[in-house]
Specification:
mainly beta, Jelly Rolls, 8-stranded antiparallel beta sheet, 2 helices, 18 strands, about 35% strand, globular
């Protein structure tokens, strides 16, 4: 009788639909995940962007996140335009900002889940206006070292006409810098998070103070991506990106 009961339980499990969450794949232009520009995310003097990604290839200049049109007025977090192993943040002020890592944090990451974070703060001390971090499924995020630390100066240029994007940027109506791989979740804050906060979110993603955008990408397939931050309405629109039957192996944000 016990054997029959176990067999029936197994058959029931096989008959039930499985709950498989998928990430979004951005590998082909013009793939992107867009949040329409609005007052909650426009022209911030301090911000943080965080993502879990799985690169399939390393390609110079490809975008992780942006609020820019490829010419002026905004910011970009991307693979360095100069090589395929470093990360770069560009931000437009009266005198512009550029930080580029020099410790090749992208080496060996193809086909693996990687955690990237970047912070920006015009009030920070010299050499700290931008901080770039990398972590993995087995290593806590650490700040990288840099070959370029151009802090810039003056007010942040208005980016109120630039949409926020994961996985690409708007190059004056052309989207040719799609991220060469998958993204599982991403967040955007209206302040510069500390390293401890960035580490606390690495394996336990959740809304905390300053959160404006939080997507578990692919949980709604390629439909509207629900913003899990709460009261603001920064939902995401998927264009061209597809779903991949794989999601970063963290706990579910919905408790199941």
């Amino acid at each position: 009788m016990k054997t029959i009961t176990l067999l029936l339980a197994l058959l029931l499990m096989l008959a039930l639909p499985s709950q498989t969450y998928a990430a979004l794949s951005f590998g082909v232009n013009p793939a992107r995940l867009t949040v329409t520009a609005n007052s909650t995310i426009n022209t911030l003097s301090a911000w943080t962007v965080i993502v879990w990604v799985r690169p399939e290839v390393l390609m110079a200049g490809r975008n992780i996140a942006s609020k820019h049109n490829g010419i002026s007025n905004g910011w970009i977090f991307r693979y360095s335009g100069a090589d395929t192993t470093n990360l770069q943040v560009l931000a437009d002020r009266t005198v512009n900002v550029s930080y580029i890592t020099n410790d090749a944090p992208l080496t060996g990451t193809v086909g693996s889940w990687v955690y990237y974070a970047a912070t920006f703060n015009t009030s920070a001390s010299a050499g700290q206006v931008v901080n770039i971090y990398k972590g993995t499924l087995t290593q806590l995020a650490t700040e990288r070292t840099y070959s370029v630390t151009t802090d810039g100066s003056g007010a942040v240029d208005s980016d109120s006409s630039r949409n926020f994007m994961f996985g690409n940027r708007d190059e004056v109506g052309v989207y040719s810098s799609s991220f060469p791989g998958k993204m599982a979740w991403g967040m955007y804050f209206n302040r510069a998070l500390t390293q401890n906060e960035i580490r606390s979110l690495q394996f336990n993603p959740r809304p905390i103070s300053g959160c404006q955008i939080y997507f578990q990408m692919g949980y709604n397939d390629t439909g509207t991506q629900r913003n899990l931050c709460g009261p603001n309405n920064n939902s995401g629109t998927v264009t061209t990106a597809t779903t991949s039957l794989q999601h970063v192996p963290l706990r579910s944000p919905f408790g199941n």
